[in-house]
Each structure stands twice: as structure tokens, then as C-alpha cells.
Amino acid sequence: MFHKAYLGASISLLAIATTAQAQEAPEGGLEEIVVTAQKREQNLQQVPVSVTALSAEAIANKGITQFENLAQTAPGLTITQGTQRTGNSINLRGIGTSVFSIGVEPAVSVVVDDVPILNQGQAFTTLTDIERIEVLRGPQGTLFGKNASAGVVNIVTRAPTDTFSGRIAASATTDEEYRVEAGISGPLGENVGFRINGFYSDFRGYVKNLATGNYLGADESWGIRGKLVADVSDNVKISISAEHSETDGNSMPRTVRSFQPGATVFGASLATNLAGINAGPDNYLLNQNYDGIAKGKSTSVSGRISIDLGSVDLISITSYQKWGLDTQDDVEQINLPVFGSPTGLVQSSPYDTKNVTQELRLVSTAPGPFQYILGAFYSNGETDRSFDRGPSGPLLSKWVSNAGTETYAAFAQGTYDLAETTHLDAGIRYNHEKIDVSFQRLNIPATQPANNAICLNVCTGNASDNAVTGKIALRQDVAERVMVYASFATGYKGQGYDVSSGFTPFRAANPVKAETSHTYEIGLKSRFLDNRVQFNVTGFWTDYKNFQSQSAVVLPDQSIQFQLNNVGKLRTRGVEVELQTKPTRALSFDLAGTFLDAIITEYPLANCNTIETTAPVCFDIDGSGPGTARAQNLAGKRLPNAPKFMFNASAMYDIFMDSMPFDAFVTLDYRYQSRVNFDLFQNPLYFQKAYGVLNGSIGVRQRDDQYRVTLFVNNLFDKHFASNVGGLVGGPATAVNQVLSRNSRRYFGIRANYNF
């Protein structure tokens, strides 16, 4: 009954509804949006970068509580989910990290309060007490460094308030997630302010394991963050922030999507094990003998000192991060003993990461035609990972590894007003990086393989590299509130090692080269119709060289092996359009779309996929016939999880009720994306067809926003979609499994907020 009433109300208001805007808006018009995309506060419409900004208001209206929810709101952003957070990939304009190793860097940098995180898995956590999220598309290496060759997700948390205030929020959903959040903020004396926020969340999970009766994807988590800001003098301001969070859950669920009759997993009948389960894109059941675990801890401390030197500010940002994730997974996904073990084949892989960063900036503040930022950056990060897959059998693998990176960088960026309406932006960054890895195999075979193919003792590798990246942009104010720009930027992703079960002395001695990119961009940013319409459009073309991925290589003894290497070139090009309107005081809506042509331009010796292993797709590498290594040429093929079309539409309509102490509102959010293949090697079974998802909410709020109560629905029409598709371990090539995210199912919920 509830969902029918909700559907009727939503449809009746769809034509006159839209998304809440980022900040308080002038009556009948759009608000000014301030971002820090260029490490100083600027109006979004004056920044020559393709940026999507979400404020605290928009985040609350859209119900964004997890990092992966951002893929539903930011054009050009997709997230490929692995079986654990460490295997997730953040992709912008079709580019992400397709190799998941502690010795390989991500292509999209995630920055929290000016501090870059080391491991991309750290990003996939609860979002709480957030002031603003900025998604910057395209290389951002000049200001954000080496891990930003495809873009940046910049997260800004809320600062202490000048007056005492507090907030309590709670939510519950029909798929049994219960969440509470509370915080207080205010002054501590005349010159000191504080802010404390904490949350607790308990989620049942969403895919049922028939063997245990439990739901996978379950998670219980909590966290706390504190901030202290002090005006030490008229010229000196100090900010200290600390946070800690913990999570205790089980495995990210993988369900069987398809298989052929007679298929087996390690000799066991797959059909027998899946009795009562209908394999398919809408399969939310599994039958495996172990639920797995996923336990994580994160601690971070940062300090910021800002000194006003008159015409320039000196800013120092220091941080320490510690993050760990302990995981165990049922590898073969069946409810039968495997290799003599009652729990089957279990894979454990704990991660422990530490990172220290220091950044110094000189930021000009005096008025004039020339503004600049000068900076220096240092980071020292280390990750330990162990791996145990067993207890026996052909996939037995046990090893420990370590990867360390040390980075020194200097950067500068300036803006010069060539004329009153013409502006030139230019920046440069010098980066020096050292990387070292170690790997020790713990299960040494009785017979040593040929070609020095495994590390019998400890294998070590170390490398260093210097790189220069830069950006130049020309902006022209063609009318009041209308700006056009053209820019050129270079990107850099550092050297890497494929630290995985196949690590060998050859890999230790041969790190992959750095990945580089050149981006050409033109854009229009405009506001018109009395500040009621904002229209931004960007056209881009990016060429990538030395793309890091798996490929076939010839070893010194002329034998052939597949491993991480610099194997090719990529090209991404497209158009991004964003439209925001507020035609009346009550009505606002957003439209955003991306056309993306992301293809491989050079990849001559790529792995064959597991289905197409013969001509005309695959060929013998050395031409000597059957029994030799085979490869395929991927030139002209699309990149994985890079939809050709993406479209977002959101709407909000306020219903002002003067006779009541509160007003009502309705919101709708719709996202569509075209078909994608999740396999770089183009397996025809690893695809997700086009789909669209509609979310919405109805609620009431007091006019000064002291309280708000919201009824919401996720995925109103229950459109099932996979966030990753791959092979079934131990099964035939035609057996396919999938990672289904929680958002691929419909659920309802209620949220309540009280501010004081």
C-alpha cells in the first residue's frame, strides 16, 4: 500500500520537481557554488575544469551515505566493485585502475580535507558530516599529484560553527539497515571552535546464503570525527582533525549469473549445488559453505596551519593515516567440501597501510592581475599484504608482500589577467618518486619450475622516476556570467609492480613504466535568465601512453608469460553537459549527460578472453601453431565499464504550506547508462545491458530546517544491474558470476533529522 501511494505521488509531481541545490539560493534563482578544485576558494563558474559539486544539502536530499552512491549522481563517474573494497575501481571518463596490486597506483585520486589517501579501498566507507564533494574530471596532476591522471574526488568535511549547534539523525530501511548519527559544534572560548560527529550503522545484508541462512554484504560499522580550530592570533589559524572508524562484516556477495548444463566446479555439479536457485541477472541467492569476513579499521590525524603574511598566506598541512582490512572469502562459491576441507577453498588477504604526508603552500591574497600558488609536497606510504588460499589443491598460494612509496614534489600555478575579460592560467609540477617492493612465497613447490619462474626466497624490487606535469588554460568572459575556456593538461601515474600470486624475479627486476596522458579540453560555463539557469558544457580528448595492464611478454629465455606491462595506448573523448535551473521559488531541476568514446588504440598482445581462444579473435604469438601462447589485438575495442552514454536527471519541488509550521517536498533522481563490458579482454559473457534507476523521496521540514522527516525509495522500479561480472573460480569458461550492489534492488526507508 505504501509503495503504491508513493508511486502515485511521485508520478503526479515528476513534471514539476527537481534536485536541491548546493547552498542557500536567492529567492527564485540559483545559488553561487564555491569550490576548492584549484586549492583556493573560487566560484565554480570561474574554474576552467569540468567539475560536479554536491553540497551538504544535495548529499542529504539524495541520501548519499556511502562512497559508491556517488556513481548515481556525477556524470562520467563509474565504480567497478570487486569482491572486497581493495578490488574496487573508481573510473572517470572511462579510465580507472584495471590492475589491483599494492604496487600499482590508482588513476583517480581521492582527497579528504586536502589529504590524499594512499589505497583506493580506503575511500569505500561511510560518508558522514560532509560539507561538499567535488568530482573533477580529467588529469589534475599539477595541483593534486601523481595519482590524479584521470581525475579527483575531493571531499570536504564540515568545519566548527561560530555558535553552539547540534544534530541528531536516524534512518531505517526495509532491507534492515539501521543508522544513527549525532554531532555537536560550537565555540570553546573566544578564539577556539570545535566539532564532534559520530555514527553507528548496522546492515543485515542483501543476498541470502542458503547454506548458512545469513545475508552477505552485511556490515556493522561505527566512527567518530573531531575537529578543533583556533585563531592563535590575528594572523595565525590552526586546525586539527582526527577520526577513527571500524567495520565488521562479511563478504561482498557474488551470485551465479549463467552456466551451461553439466557445468562443474572443481568436479562438483553446479546445478546440484544451485538447486532452488535461478541463475540470472536477478539472482540474489547463493549456496556456499562460508560467509567470509571483512573487518576494517581506519585512523587519521591531520593538522593545518595558516599564517597571513600580508599579501600571501603560508599554509601547512600535515597528516598521518593508518588503515587495515582483513578479509576472508569462499573462493569456489559452493556448499561442498573442496580438497578435503569442510569450508572449501578459502582465501584470506589482510591489508595494512600507513601513510604520512606534508604539504606547504604559498597562496597569494593581494588584489591584482596576477594570483599564484607555490607549493611543495612530501609523502611516505607503506602497505603490507599477506595472502593465503588453501588449504590445498592446485590453486594453493601463500605469500607475504610489502610495497613502499616515497614522493617529493614541487608545484606552481598562476592566473594572469591579460585583459579585463581575458585570463591565462598556467601550472607546472615536478615529481620525484621512489618505489620498493618485497615478496616472499611461503608454499615452495617440491620441484622448482624452470625459467626462474617463482620467488624461492625473498624477491625485491626498487625503482625511482622523475616526472613533470603541467596545465595551461585560456579563459574568456564573453558576457556577464558567461565564460568559455580552452585548456591543455598532462597527467602521470607512477611506475608499478604486479605484486600478486604470479610475482617472479623477472617481474621484480622489471617494473612497469609510468602511465602518461595528454588532455585537450574546451568548455562553456554560463548563467542566464536572471540567474535561474546554469548551463555548462565540456568537450575533451585524452590520449594515454604506456597504459598499465596485463599482456603477453617474452622472457629472456624466449618463453612467453602473461604479466603486468606497458602494452598500449588509449583514447577517451567525449562531451559532458550539465544544466541546472530554478524557474520558481518552489521548483528546481538538474540534467546532466555524458557521451563517451573510450577505446584502446594500441594493444597488440593482449590476453585472449576465456571464450574466444581461437582464430579469428586469437592468434599464436610466435606463429608455431597449437600449444603456444596466444593473444589478441584489442585496437579499436572499448574500455571496460565505460558506457557510451550516461544521463542523470534530478528534481525537487517544495510545497509551501503557510497555515502549517512546516513545508513539504518531493525529490526524484534518475540515472541511465548504456551497455558495458566489464572485461578488458572483451569476454562476450561479461556484459551488463543498458539500464536506468529511479530514486525518490517525499517529506516535510520545518521552515528553519530544525527538523526534517523523509520517506524514500531506492530503485523504485526494481531494475537489477551488476556492478561487476566475471568468471566462476574452478568452473568452466561459460560459468559466469556477478557482483550485485545493494542499490540494484528496490528498498524503502525513512530518515529523520533534528537540528538544534
UniProtKB/TrEMBL annotation:
Residues 1-22 form the signal peptide. The keyword Ion transport applies. Residues 44-152 form the TonB-dependent receptor plug domain. One of its GO terms (cellular component) is cell outer membrane. GO terms for biological process: iron ion transport. Keywords: Cell outer membrane, Ion transport, Iron, Iron transport, Membrane, Receptor, Signal, TonB box, Transmembrane, Transmembrane beta strand, Transport. It holds the Pfam family TonB_dep_Rec_b-barrel. It is a multi-pass membrane protein. Residues 269-716 form the TonB-dependent receptor-like beta-barrel domain. It is found in: Cell outer membrane. InterPro entries: Beta-barrel_TonB (IPR000531), Beta-barrel_TonB_sf (IPR036942), Plug_dom (IPR012910), TonB-dep_rcpt-like (IPR039426). Belongs to the TonB-dependent receptor family. This is Iron complex outermembrane receptor protein.
